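User: Hi! I have a protein structure encoded as tokens and I'd like to know what sequence might fold into it. I'm fairly new to this, so please keep things simple.
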């Protein structure tokens, strides 16, 4: 290379390095404020609408609805944008709105606005039950941002309202008997054993119950399984209470809203399927073919039951979440007892065990056959993950499954290799989950995933139009929801009924965490999906059963 060319290259790189060093040093220091000259102005960070305008709504003893907002400095509300509507429960009078501050606004010209705080009182001129009030408001920030109009719906229950009236409104009463809650939770826990989401784990329980019950170890195994079930329910209860105390809107099955958890469960079910086929031994994990762990089996049974909701559960969970941590833990404890009870009865009492079929080679065949429901469950979870996080996350899960299969082949149930095979498998799971959590680009989350989000504006517009509305609050990980949609909502009979009666169908998807959907559930005192609400044109909304058939649905809507 000629000397002149070499010197030119060296000087060019030296110049670029100097500029890069200067730029790096500049970014580590506090930016210089040139706001006074108008040359450079730091962009402000705007708050979300709920942070900027904190709203509190209450029903006073003197027959008024009190609505108050508080705003941080620099944010204001428009007086002329206030609007209040009542969907049910009576009639409202003229709102009492204080005078505001005169302001020449960039958007509306001469207006009255409120800074810091504002209180509005709306007289209730007639009250026939719980008030469902819609509150519309709009505000802006002095820094140049104007928020779109917001409408929030609140249900206000008058003191001393009767149990029967609350039930008709579809709102869980607060004065329900604790014994009714306990019995509801007990039946709900029992019914969870019959749901399809728990079926894969029945493979582990069913193939071991015969040997265990006849070996004299039934009581010990029953206690271990019940301990696993009850402990996991209580842990979920503590997590629910902690998150709700921190302001998170979570409910039953909330962990399945997280792609990382769904990824881990997918790989777990795939590994369990390999285990039942006999190609992957998991010592220390408690799922070995010969000695299943009762405690861990109970834990897994609860985890896979969370996508399912059964009759009696909604009222019990709604009561627990509305009455505080103590009530919630009682509900979770009884749910666990109800779910564990059938297995405890079978394994813990010799008289029942003697009536069961005798163990034999057929049990090994059933074990292997039950591996395929495990694989189907993994496929379903991959589908859920695709709706949450897109194709890149699915690719990572498939790569992780291939990795687990390769480790199974390398291990070959060779006990000398088991330790490092298990360690490598755990590393694969951790790496894949980490990759999934970091695989969703921002543009995918905001654009492609927006089609699954609840359109609150469309819902309120449909309600305001006077047409009947059917609201379906669902999630991709909710097996009960999917079953109802396939067996009922998607049938020609139901579709024709909706079309002939001009019913607007609105779907609110809770597959990923969505505060607007959480607010819907809270409005009807529900802790999870599915939630079906029918809004007739001229009468009160009606909460429908969680398990549907076309006949049940149409009878409920016509009744």
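Assistant: Happy to help. Inverse folding works backwards from shape to sequence: for each of the 559 positions I chose a residue that suits the local structure. Here it is:
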């Amino acid at each position: 290379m000629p000397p002149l060319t070499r010197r030119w290259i060296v000087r060019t790189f030296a110049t670029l390095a100097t500029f890069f060093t200067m730029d790096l040093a500049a970014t580590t220091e506090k930016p210089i404020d040139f706001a006074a000259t108008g040359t450079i102005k730091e962009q402000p960070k705007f708050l979300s609408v709920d942070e900027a305008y904190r709203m509190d709504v209450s029903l006073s003893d003197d027959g008024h609805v009190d609505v108050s907002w508080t705003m941080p400095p620099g944010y204001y509300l428009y007086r002329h944008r206030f609007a209040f509507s009542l969907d049910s429960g009576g009639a409202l009078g003229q709102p009492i709105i204080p005078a505001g501050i005169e302001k020449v606004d960039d958007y509306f010209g001469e207006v009255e606005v409120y800074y810091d705080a504002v209180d509005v009182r709306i007289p209730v001129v007639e009250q026939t039950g719980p008030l469902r009030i819609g509150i519309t408001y709009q505000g802006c920030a002095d820094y140049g941002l104007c928020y779109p109009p917001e409408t929030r719906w609140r249900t206000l229950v008058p003191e001393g309202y009767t149990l029967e009236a609350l039930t008709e409104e579809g709102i869980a009463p607060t004065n329900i008997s604790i014994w009714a809650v306990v019995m509801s939770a007990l039946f709900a826990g029992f019914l969870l054993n019959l749901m399809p989401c728990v079926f894969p784990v029945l493979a582990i329980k069913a193939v071991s119950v015969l040997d265990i019950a006849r070996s004299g170890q039934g009581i010990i195994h029953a206690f271990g399984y019940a301990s696993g079930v009850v402990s996991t329910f209580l842990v979920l209860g503590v997590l629910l209470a902690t998150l709700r105390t921190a302001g998170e809107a979570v409910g039953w099955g909330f962990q399945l809203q997280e792609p990382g958890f769904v990824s881990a469960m997918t790989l777990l079910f795939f590994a369990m399927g390999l285990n039942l086929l006999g190609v992957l031994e998991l010592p220390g994990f408690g799922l070995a073919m010969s000695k299943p762990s009762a405690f861990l089996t109970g834990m897994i049974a609860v985890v896979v039951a969370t996508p399912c909701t059964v009759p009696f559960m909604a009222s019990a969970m709604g009561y627990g979440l509305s009455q505080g941590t103590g009530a919630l833990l009682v509900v979770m404890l009884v749910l666990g007892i109800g779910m564990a009870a059938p297995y405890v009865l079978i394994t813990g009492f010799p008289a029942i065990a003697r009536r069961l079929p005798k163990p034999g080679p057929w049990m090994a065949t059933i074990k292997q056959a039950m591996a395929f429901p495990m694989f189907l469950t993994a496929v379903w979870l991959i589908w859920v993950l695709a709706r949450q996080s897109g194709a890149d996350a699915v690719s990572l899960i498939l790569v992780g499954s291939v990795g687990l299969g390769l480790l199974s082949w390398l291990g070959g149930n060779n006990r000398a290799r088991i330790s490092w095979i298990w360690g490598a498998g755990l590393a694969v799971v951790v790496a894949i989950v980490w990759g999934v959590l970091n695989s969703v680009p921002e543009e995918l989350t905001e654009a492609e995933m927006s089609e699954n989000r609840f359109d609150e504006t469309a819902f309120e517009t449909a309600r305001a139009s006077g047409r009947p509305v059917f609201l379906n609050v669902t999630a991709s990980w909710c097996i009960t929801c999917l079953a109802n949609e396939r067996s009922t909502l998607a049938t020609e009979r139901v579709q024709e009924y909706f079309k002939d009666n001009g019913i607007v169908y609105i779907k609110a998807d809770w597959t990923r965490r969505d505060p607007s959907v959480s607010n819907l559930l809270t409005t009807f005192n529900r802790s999870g999906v599915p939630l079906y609400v029918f809004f007739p044109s001229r009468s009160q909304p009606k909460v429908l059963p969680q398990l549907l058939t076309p006949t049940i649905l149409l009878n409920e809507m016509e009744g």
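A useful reference point when you look it over: The two ends are 92 Å apart (CA to CA). Feel free to ask if any position seems puzzling.
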